[in-house]
Amino acid sequence: MSLQRRYITVDEELGKKDDDHREGRRSAMSSPTTTNFTWRGPRRKRILLAIAVFSILYIFFKNLPKDAALATRRQGLKSPAVGSSRQAPSAPKGPPPRSDSSVDERRYFEGPIKYYRLGASFAAGLGPVHDNRNVLFVVSNLKSASRILPLACDMSKQNKNRIHLMLTGRDEIAIEDIQKINGVTEADCSIRWHDGRPDFSVYSTDYRMEVSVRASLGHITSVLKPRVVLVDSPEREDIFFTTGIKDKTRDLGLPLIELPVNAAEQLQWISKLDGSSLKAWNEINIEILIHSPPESSGSLIRLLRSLERADYFGFPHPRLTIELPNNMDPPTAQFLSSFRWPPWSHTGNSKLTLRHRLLSNHLDATQASIRQLESFYPSNVPQSNVLVLSPQVELSPLYFHYLVYTLLDYKHSNTALHTSEGIMGISLERPFTTLNGKDSLSIPEEASTKPLFRYQAPNSNAALYFGDKWVELHSFLSNRLAADKDVHKDGDAAYSISQAYPSWLNHVLELARARGYTMLYPSLSSSEAALATIHTELYHPPEEYLDPTPIMAENPPPSKETPLTASSEPIEITHGPKFEPPVASGSLLHLLNPKLSSSDSGGPLPGLSDLPILSYTGEYLPQGQVSLNQAALSYADDFSRHLGGCNNAGSGGGEKESKKNKKKKKKQTRPTRKPWSADDLFCLEEGETEESLGVGRMPPSTQQTEGAAQKEDVGEEHAGRPVDVDKDG
């Protein structure tokens, strides 16, 4: 029996089982010869498994930091100084081990990256998922933090965004100490703090720190999903930080705003913008268009110098297009030969385009309007804008601040996405007369407390037009030419624009009245500094309104003995203010609100619905947009019948209507309105637009049988425009 048991025990050690012979558990201290207490040794697989488990546990506890017990704790999203009652785990103390003892540098560590405090700040304060208003500031050193904090705190006071600030870099100072140094408390600066500094940051190489910046931004983005990331100027940040933050934001598709050096002093208005406006920071595009009349070198040079002196606060300089006359004067040619735009650019990086006019013939009002509108067409309609400037303008160094600020706030903010459709553009000039050049423009008292007001009149001296409205204006003039060759026949005889303004403003006004569009104007008084000063001493009237006939002396010159005299009649200049205020400088917020103290940045811009509205005649509209919409519906209906060709009786033909017009089958109902198009204001057959512009064929032979008079009419229609003639016709 004992031999049999010994045989089974051996078999068990070899991995076999015999439950039928198993009689019970035996004591390990029993004699091996005892039948009931024969000892059974452990299986080989169990021994190996136990060794493996023991090895894993040993390695885990060997490498576990001493403060691992604290790693599972979670503190509030804010730092202890801001209101958290829990203590965050601290990173390992002392230097990490060196892989090479011969390395003598202080920054040598390139080991795995761990964040002991970053995850603890993700627990609270993120806000609802459907209302993401998170804006993230990221800094890498204490100096950047001290420069960023004023803007971040001011932005938090506006209650438009949830402000977060993440620390990266090598500084080991605690967040609560940073707050104390900068005088930040929860009461006056309710921002959320995040510590994105890795372990052993002081001893880390630049490459490890760059990887750490990328990784920490990836972690916080996955949780917060910020609308935009703001950083200090690259000139003041660490190179590893600048490289890492640019690469990671590009990979994540996050908008990155690199603030200029003087952001705390000159860019305070950025704190008034919401996340949607900031998100569009890098998307907006502004191009400048200047039409230079003959013999205007002095005015043009002054304007270009003011463009050079302007502050673009890190923004790419706008593309500049100058339309030159045929007879360009020598001073203009000499100045432009050495002019660089941007000022620091080389030949390959120039954003300057010069267009010299070939023909020397006099332009009429229609040709001048076409030339103006054809000078620009947006490549990206929602984001492109054109700034139209007259050579008699001198711009403030703050003009670009004002344009970007108002453009972002009134077109790209959360509220503007549903209310900006009625805005055509932004004017830099504050007009003092209405478009007829006779009546003074008085702003109601309600507007005196607001930095801006809305006015239905367009502007040609210094105004930014939105890309979508400029495309719609192209469509409007194209249809206008097709519907009526005499496009400058006044549709409203009771009101006409002064000839001190260029002819293309007539079409802008017609479109504005038909749509109910307005422009934003600054409410600056004549005694204050201006964003754009209009100089009248070198004024040149529009070319289309000049007499093309040279002035010939009908009488012989007076004798030397007879003194020359001046007319005693007063000369009234209606194309600009009689007082020319100086251009503004300093702070934009204090310019828009002079009552602010030097330490106060004020509040955000008022909403569009809160701005006073003036009609195109300068009349104050208490009902605002409601009155504009009612007037627009009435005007659009009258315009479509009388000038748009949507009603035969209203086309002006009557019984004497020509046979040519009778053969045109006009649509009786207006088409459906489409985005960026004015086709709904006209009822035209296909091909009429091309024929009116002179790019179609000559009328067919059936229409040529009406005689020479009709041929003369056709010639007048296409005067000054290219015509493709059918050789067979």
UniProtKB/TrEMBL annotation:
Question: Does Signal show up as a keyword for this record?
Answer: no
* Annotated region (Disordered), positions in chain: 1-37, 78-104, 553-579, 646-729
**In its keyword annotation, does this UniProt entry include Transmembrane?**
yes
* Membrane-spanning ranges: 47-64
Q: Which domain of life is it from?
A: Eukaryota
Question: What residue spans carry the Basic and acidic residues bias annotation?
Answer: 13-26, 709-729
UniProt lists compositionally biased (Acidic residues) regions at 682-691
Where does this protein have compositionally biased stretches of type Polar residues? Answer: 28-37
Keywords associated with the record: Membrane, Transmembrane, Transmembrane helix
Where composition is biased (Basic residues), the residues are 659-673
The record's listing under PANTHER family reads: OSJNBA0004B13.7 PROTEIN (PTHR33604:SF3)
**The protein's name in its UniProt record:** Glycosyltransferase 2
